[in-house]
Amino acid sequence: MKIALIAHDSKKNEMVNFVIAYKHIFEKHDIYATGTTGSRIMMESKVTVNRLKSGPLGGDQQIGSMVASNEIDLVIFLRDPLVAQPHEPDITALLRLCDVQCIPLATNIATAELLIKSMERADFAWRDIVKEKYKYVAPTGTEG
Ligand SMILES: O=C(CO)COP(=O)(O)O
């Protein structure tokens, strides 16, 4: 499965500790993360991460694009609900796309734990069926 991990600054320690605690699960999956979150996770947990751009520089939109193509199976986005972000429209768009595509989304650590434990139990097997059904096929005749 492909898991996206994103954390705002005040939640980055929580995210790193979460990945360390469930390292045995995260190691079995493809992890994608926004820039700074990804660096912290890689440095402190040694879990391999596909790092995208930093959130405010387009990282949330990169993950949103993967969600729109139904490529991401789980999004864990530890948001800071008390601090306004300069890229709030990108954040809202990503959350909206998760709902559009019915992608499991955790925005706090309590839900993240429930979802990661359910992934360990293979409760996410339905995602393989959905991905196959809605596989993105690039339109033809658009090149050049
Ligand atoms: O801003 C973010 C999500 O909106 C997170 O980005 P970073 O992981 O680069 O800090």
From TrEMBL:
What catalytic activity does the UniProt entry give for this protein? Answer: dihydroxyacetone phosphate = methylglyoxal + phosphate
Annotated binding of substrate, by residue: 8, 12, 34-37, 54-55, 87
- In Gene Ontology terms, what is one molecular function of this protein? methylglyoxal synthase activity
Q: For this UniProt entry, what's an example GO CC term?
A: cytosol
| Annotated EC | 4.2.3.3
Check the record and name the HAMAP family matching this protein. Answer: Methylglyoxal_synth (MF_00549)
Q: What is this protein called?
A: Methylglyoxal synthase
Traced from the root, the source organism's taxonomic lineage reads:
Bacteria, Bacillati, Bacillota, Bacilli, Bacillales
